[in-house]
Amino acid sequence: MSDHLDTCQPATYEFVHSLMDEIKYILVDNLIGLYLHGSLAMGGFNPANSDIDLLGVTKVPLANEDALKLKKLLLKCSNQPFPIEISFLNKKQLREWQHPSHFDFHFSEFWRSYFENQSQTGAEVYLYDGDRKDKDLAAHITITNYRGICLLGNPIIDVFPRIPREHYISSILGDFQSCLQNIEQDPVYCTLNLLRVYRYFKEHEISSKLEGGEWGLSHLPNEYKIIIRKVISHYQNHKYNEPFEAHELLSIKDYVKEKVEEIVGYDFQE
C-alpha cells in the first residue's frame, strides 16, 4: 500500500498529525488506534474540498467526559482548514460486528450545528440518544481494511474485522441511491460516487471518487466523457470550470443506474 499521507502537502500532513496528537492526549491508554481512510489515504485528496476521514478505536466505550473533550476539539479544529469526518468505535463493537454498526461518537461538518446547539444548552454530548448505529461504517471499515493508513496504534489487520461483502454492498448502495436522487444538487460528489460504485460491481475494485471518475473516462461510451471531464475538473478545483447541464447529468445518471441494476438484479426507485 502506498502511504499517500507522506506525499501530501505539508499543511495537510501537519494538520493530521496535530489532530492525532490531540486525540491521543484526550484518550490516553484507552485508544487502540487511529486510522485514515477516504481520499487522503487513497491518493485523491483535494485540499480545497476533501474531508479528512478517520476512524478511532478504543478499548472500552468512551466516557462522557472524553466525548465532550473530543467534541470541543473537533468543533475547534474542523474546517481549520480541512473538514473532519470521524467515528469512534470500541473493541467490543468491532468484535461483535453487526450491520448497521454501533458506534460511540461521530463528528462531521454536517453535525456541527447540532453540537454547537448542545454546547449552548448543556445537552448530552453524544450524537444520538439511545441506540447509535451507522450504515456507512461497513463501507468505511472495508476501505480501511483495503487501503487505509494506520496513523498510530495497532495495525489495521489486528483491529478491524473483515466486513461481509453483503454489508459493504448494502452500505454503498444506500449512498448510490441518494446520489441518484441528488445528482443535480451535488453533481461532483454524486457523479463520481455513482462511477466508483459502478466500477466496484463491474471489477470488484474499491476506488476513491477521483479513481472512479478516471475509470469512467476509459470505460464509459464517448458521449459521457465530456461530463466526466467537467466533474473531474471541478473536483480537482481547476480554475476553468464549465457549468453543468441538467441533461448531461441526468443522462450519465440513467446510464450508470441501468448498468448497476443489470448487475445487482433489481431496480432503484427515485
Automatic annotation (TrEMBL):
This is Spectinomycin 9-adenylyltransferase. The keyword DNA-binding does not apply. Gene3D superfamilies: Beta Polymerase, domain 2. It catalyses: spectinomycin + ATP = 9-O-adenylylspectinomycin + diphosphate. Keywords: Antibiotic resistance, ATP-binding, Nucleotide-binding, Nucleotidyltransferase, Transferase. Residues 32-99 form the Polymerase nucleotidyl transferase domain. The keyword Transferase applies. Pfam families: AadA_C, NTP_transf_2. It comes from the Bacteria. Residues 158-252 form the Adenylyltransferase AadA C-terminal domain.
